[in-house]
Amino acid sequence: MSVVNEIASWCEVDQPKAVDTIYFGGGTPSLLSPAQLDALLKGVRKRFDVSPNAEVTMEMNPGTVSQKTLTVFRELGINRASFGAQTFDDRELARLGRSHTVADTRQTFLLLREAGFTNVSFDLIAGLPGQTLSAWLHNLDEAFALRPEHLSFYLLEVHEGTPLAGHIKSGLQPVPDEDLAAEMYRLMLERAAAGGYVHYEISNLCLPGFESRHNTKYWTGPPYYGFGCSAHSFDGESRRWANERDLGKYVAMVERNASPLVEDRRLTEADRRAEAVFLGMRMMAGVRTGEFKEVFGVDLFTEHADDLRNFQQAGLIEFDGDLLKLTGAGALLSNEVFAAFV
Length: 342
Fold this sequence. Notes:
alpha/beta; three-stranded antiparallel sheet; 16 helices; 44% helix
């Protein structure tokens, strides 16, 4: 396997060895055979010192797993599962071009529980073309009835060149209603709070103690190392790098013992400061401006006084001592806030 070869090539590289999270994502890693997964995990454990209580997540698509396979995955060390429910309406799934059904989502969740998974996450999308408020409330009823440990939710983004963008442009599907999507976001947070969920990141909710430890690293700055086609890495300081995105090219490069690296970027001091703010503020706990000043020698209140004053007056941010954080409204309009720091 090319990914195993890539991991093995790190054996002689002087990099930090201790890791406490492993994440299998991108594509459909749950289609791996148990033998393939075992080989990957052995490769990681050979190269890195994996913590005994590491969070090991696998992404999967509803309807692509069996209880037998999930049980083996659990025995091999997968202890967290994440899958894309997206909506509990078969008509909306069809409009999205998804291959699974609502029944597949429910069955996948049940199989995970039967296989012993006690940390399960799935996602929902709000603001789908033609989606009504009543349909969204139905989604929330279904999602919270299952009571997963973690929920991710996203407002639909229509990207140019996608089939959905083409359908909207040609009139086959309606233009998403941004105001309605904002109300859906508000209702999601209201229902989540009533159900005991913590809104810990702009697009993520969890029961207390079930934050995604792995994804939190992306927002708070520790190093992470990616292996596989299109995988990205960060050294925790100033270097970001990424692998070849074309699968065929990636496999060919690794199999001839060539580096699959195609991007290698060094962050400037300004880049690092900007990332520390706009990635850190994705966390609803916010950014400690005192710590920011200690690290970067910059006082955010001085450097961005006008922007911060305007955002506060607009109800998008709030201050708690030296803590700078988004409000609920600010989380919905976070891109407007973050743009001031880039």
